[in-house]
UniProtKB/TrEMBL annotation:
<protein>
    <submittedName>
        <fullName>Sugar ABC transporter substrate-binding protein</fullName>
    </submittedName>
</protein>
<keyword id="KW-0813">Transport</keyword>
<comment type="similarity">
    <text>Belongs to the bacterial solute-binding protein 1 family.</text>
</comment>
<keyword id="KW-0732">Signal</keyword>
<dbReference type="Pfam" id="PF01547">
    <property type="entry name" value="SBP_bac_1"/>
</dbReference>
<dbReference type="InterPro" id="IPR050490">
    <property type="entry name" value="Bact_solute-bd_prot1"/>
</dbReference>
<feature type="signal peptide">
    <location>
        <begin position="1"/>
        <end position="29"/>
    </location>
</feature>
<feature type="compositionally biased region" description="Low complexity">
    <location>
        <begin position="41"/>
        <end position="53"/>
    </location>
</feature>
<feature type="region of interest" description="Disordered">
    <location>
        <begin position="34"/>
        <end position="53"/>
    </location>
</feature>
<dbReference type="InterPro" id="IPR006059">
    <property type="entry name" value="SBP"/>
</dbReference>
Amino acid sequence: MRSSSRTTTRRAARSAAALLAGALTLSLAACGGDDDKDSPTEGASGGTETTATVRLPKLDGESLEVAAVWTGPEQANFKKVLAEFEKRTGAKVTFVPAQDPIINFLGSKIAGGQPPDVAMLPQPGAIRQAVEKGWAKPLGAEAQAELKKNFSQGWQDIGTVDGKPYGVYYKAANKSLIWYNTQVFENAGAEEPKTWEDLLSTAQTIYDSGVTPFSVGGADGWTLTDWFENVYLSQAGPEKYDQLAKHEIKWTDPSVKEALTTLAQIWGKQDYLAGGASGALQTEFPASVTQTFTGGDQPKAGMVYEGDFVQVNIAETDAKVGTDAKVFPFPSVGDTAPVVSGGDAAVILEDSKAAQALATFLASPDAATIQAGLGGYLSPNKNVDPKAYPNAVQQEMAKALIAAGDDFRFDMSDQAPQAFGGTPGKGEWKALQDFLKNPKDIAGTQRRLEADAAAAYGN
């Protein structure tokens, strides 16, 4: 039975990866800038005009607070979604900027008697902790109905704890992408790699042309966990990935050693990283993107790894997605290319008619369609029309995400307790930052990871 399960899982992952690769190829061939004929029109809120598909109550005089760690364009775009909710209901919604780790931020707000009504939680582990602490409130009947109508079972399950739905996964992320400066690739005569060995060869070609191959946002430890997860999923396979995510195998397992050894083939080459390891550790994620797409054909780096949301940061430069900036799927390290996903879920902390109405709205196609039209966003809502997205790249990414159904693996660190997988300066974030600094210390990195994981998981 186990062998059959492994074969089925691998086939599913392989088909999802192939679908993603094909979608990206088609989208980039079709995308030529901002003149996409299928681009949505903008309404008064700055997003896509939508026809209401969900009924919302009148909430005149009601007020809500929504907390999230989002900043910059991501925050601004979400506020336009909240503005539409205000317009339809009469409620007043205030966005509360949160800090990582959001569980600690929420803890301080709750201790002070001022919890936000709704929080956007970026980790299933954080949802679980909020439930265990008695903070999270289950979704009501209306929100559950929208959830069942619009989301695959896999996305419903990620927001469920002990059989009760608590989270609406409003935002998804495809975290198996590498973005590149097309001028750099053309000048170097480099091609999009399909395998890890190809990626190493491409990196050397870029380096030989006089440009540093990779930009790494190592100041944000979560980017490093994403690197690891893609390598590990492809190399060790989905069964091992699930086991490590649940801490059913230890971080001292040989499969972890193999993945770290593979990562060191890039992280261990100072000349391959913009600013070397020390520079990477001082580079925050947004800067890791912008420095790849500024400076014409002589940027600080030719490639940057991260998810579809990179587009938000590319938009802050003069580069255009599909022409100056292109993307390829994270190359296969083992038999199959990885498909790692992430996301942010709306969780109710203060149960009220208004909070339940907002959760219902965020579970509907109406809310997601607005933010889809603003770019830099993907929704796991299967009833959002792909034409809502502003260009062919995002339209095909959205189609691939929905077509993959439940055949994906959620970000491993996001499944972990926050103390291990989601806290700056601690756990996996800190261990991988230390490993980036000293990629030769594989055994020591494994020991630290295991010690921190055992403490966080309580085993």
